[in-house]
Amino acid sequence: MQIAERMKSIPFTPIRKIFEEAARREAAGETIIHLELGRPDFDTPDHIKTAAIKALEEGKVHYSSNYGIAELRAAVADKFKRDNNLDYDPATEIIVTVGATEAIFMTMMALLDPGDEALIPMPAFPAYTRCVYMAGAVPVAVPAKAENDFTPSVQDLRSQITSRTRLLVVNTPNNPTGAVYSAETLEQMAALAVEKDLIVLADEIYEKNIYDGHRHYSMAVYPGMKERTITVNGFSKAYSMTGWRLGYLASSPELIAALIRIKQYATVCAGTFSQWGAVAALNGPQDSVADMGAEFDRRRRMVLDRLATMRGISFTRPQGAFYIFINTTQVRKPPRQIAAELLEKAKIAVVPWGDEHIRISYANSYQNLSKAMDALEQVLSEWCG
Ligand SMILES: Cc1ncc(COP(=O)(O)O)c(C=O)c1O
Questions:
Q1: Please, are residues 204 and 79 in contact by the beta-carbon 8 Å criterion?
Q2: For residue 103, which atom of ligand 1 is closest to its CA?
Q3: Looking at residue 13, what is its pLDDT?
């Protein structure tokens, strides 16, 4: 049977490949420590689960509006005002999505024509490139270099703009690097987007995962940006709700009118009782967000301290998200082989990333991370001793 031509550019992500291999080993009786997934290990806070259970008990089991339930859109609008100083109209400027993933997919499908170009600072979360391909458009990689704290330079972005450039992806705090773009950088990127008439996909899903006194700024607050930005966020990371499949996007009524037409045929709406849980997440107490953030930071500091003493690796101190992007060139093995051998020898799952890096996530317990660091240290000292 023949599959579509476009699928040639859509591989299974390295993250999922490692996860599947780790799962296979676990099924065969091995104990693996998962450092590959961007999945907070905490349970969803109780008051959120209670709200979803109540919704189920009350029979809130039917389709909602394509835009999402009005109560959740209102809560999202309040959140944008409270946290990001952004005014979005819940009736015309917000769509509840099936995770931030769907928001990214909808954006690329609704706003890019075949042959259009999208600027993507690299390294990047794989969904951007793949969704650009699915839209028949062309991803254009712009380097975000370690020596520049993994922030792309505005000159480099400018130099890649052609008459076909339509969209710029801005993901801060960043997966996989943990970079948090400064207000100054965002202001310059915004000015470039206005000058070159670009749409910006601002993926802010790690907004609450931020450390060392750094601050998150939303792209849409800069002059001329609200109408050209798709602000994407979600519940997976901040509230440990990855399995609920809930996110949201906000933009101008004109862009929303295009985006919603994709959604009708992709998923219709996000799960209705999940949406009621999300209302409780945004309107309820935020202590759990702060508690999870503090625990992430405790783990992060321990892991960074341990990694700093290990041979063969180097890294830039991440300021956000929950990943450490580790340069492995001194190990003198391709990252894919490093990941395979770490799984085999150290029983830890990590993600190989390009030709020079692995990514580890510290969304695992302190105790497991501590064990994983012992195992990693041992293997690295064998390789680089
Ligand atoms: C940068 C980034 N954006 C979006 C997502 C997707 O999140 P969701 O679970 O809301 O689909 C992820 C998940 O890892 C991510 O890292």
A1: no
A2: 11
A3: 80
Q: How far is the CA of 122 from the centre of ligand 1 (A)?
A: 16
Q: Write out residues with Cβ below 6 Å of ligand 1.
A: 38, 99-101, 125, 171, 175, 203, 205, 234, 236, 242, 247
Between strands 229-234 and 199-203, the pairing is parallel
CA-closest residue to ligand 1 atom 14: 38
Ligand 1 pocket mutation, candidates 175, 235, 239, criterion most atoms within 8 A of CB: 175
Q: Quick: pLDDT tens for 17-50.
A: 898 999 999 999 999 999 998 889 999 999 999 9
Provide CB contacts within 8 A for 178, sequence distance 6+.
Answer: 150, 316, 317, 318, 319, 320, 321, 322, 323, 324, 325
pLDDT, tens digit (0-9, with 9 covering 90-100), for 206-239? 999 999 999 999 999 999 999 999 999 999 999 9
Measured distance CA(257)–CA(268) in Å, rounded: 14
Q: Whose alpha carbon is nearest atom 4 of ligand 1?
A: 100
In the chain the domains, ranked by start, together with CATH numbers, are 5-43+287-384 (3.90.1150.10), 62-283 (3.40.640.10)
Put simply, whether the predicted model's pTM sits higher than 0.85 gets the answer yes
